[in-house]
Write a structure and sequence with these properties.
21% of the residues lie in helices and 27% in strands. The chain is an alpha+beta fold. A 4-stranded antiparallel beta sheet has the order 1-2-3-8, covered by helices on one side. Strands 4-5-6-7 form a 4-stranded antiparallel beta sheet, with no helix packed on it.
């Protein structure tokens, strides 16, 4: 084989190696789980003060849950700086999380249905449904009732799915 062909083959293998490495690196970065500290609450969104009463006119059907919503909102914001994320059980392996803007009392017309719980912080806009650290380590990988971790971002007074799905938890009306 002539020397020139060997050099070209070596160059092609080197270029392929760099491309393969770059693709692997980008996949590793893009599949990393979002972290609370990556989505801080802007200072303008941090609420301090007394929560507004729940405005049931923004979702009259929520009157069925007025005890939970009133009690949760009275505690003040616990998510995204100005949102009360309020959870209650809806059966075995089922939790509902509703959202109320504590500044206005408006009920956000979205909810999360989870199997094993949720995770969120007052100073972060990241919301995690069925966090993987709450899964039973002995559960089979195809266990539907064990929860599928999904990530949501609080943006423009709504939850927006981020990252890989499935995003089966989010309900809007």
């Amino acid at each position: 084989m002539p020397k020139r062909k060997i050099v070209r083959a070596g160059l092609a293998i080197t270029i392929f190696g760099f491309i393969w490495f770059a693709v692997q690196l980008s996949l590793a970065v893009s599949t990393a789980a979002p972290r609370f500290q990556d989505y801080p609450v802007p200072q303008k969104d941090a609420f301090r003060g007394r929560s507004a009463p729940v405005n049931f006119s923004t979702d009259p059907d929520s009157l069925r849950f007025q005890t939970e919503l009133n009690a949760g909102t009275a505690k003040g914001p616990n998510f995204a700086g100005h949102i009360a994320a309020i959870s209650w059980h809806c059966g075995t392996n089922c939790q509902v999380t509703a959202f109320v803007n504590v500044r206005t009392g408006d009920i956000i017309r979205q909810s999360i249905i989870s199997n094993i719980g949720v995770a969120f912080r007052q100073n972060s806009r990241l919301f995690i449904a069925d966090p993987s650290e709450q899964r039973d380590p002995d559960a089979p990988p195809d266990c539907i009732s064990c929860g599928q971790t999904a990530y949501y971002l609080w943006q423009d007074d709504r939850l927006v799915p981020i990252g890989l799905g499935p995003h089966i938890h989010l309900r809007s009306w």
